[in-house]
Amino acid sequence: MKSFITHLDERYGKIGTEKRNAFERKSRAFIVGEMLREARRSAKMTQDELARRSRTKKSYISRLENGKIDVQISTLFRIFEDGLGRTIDLTIR
To answer: In the predicted model, what is the mean pLDDT of the chain?
Structure first.
């Protein structure tokens, strides 16, 4: 049985290659979307309500939750802080 890393290397190339970098970016967008969806549901809020509270559109929240778009960091902060009353901590490695 192969490790997950080996599988990714074979399917998308080694870390640093264009194809692998694209996969990693999409993976991070998916993770952020899932975190947003989970936080919104935990707050018992609809996408429409979150959009109103964070001064954006429901379609934007939907696309974020589905990992379909990149988000500006300022917008992400506004959604979590103004919309959900949560804070975001960033770690840069």
So the answer is: 94
Beta carbons within 10 angstroms of residue 73's beta carbon: 9
The pair of three-digit structure tokens given for residue 71, joined into one six-digit string = 């988000």
pTM for the whole thing?
0.82
Residues 22 and 38: their CA atoms lie apart, in Å, by: 24
Please report whether residue 89 resides in a domain.
Answer: no
Residue 28, domain member (yes or no): yes
Query: DSSP string covering 39-67, please?
Result: HHHHTT--HHHHHHHTTS-HHHHHHHHTT
DSSP code for 79: I
In total, the chain counts a number of residues equal to 93
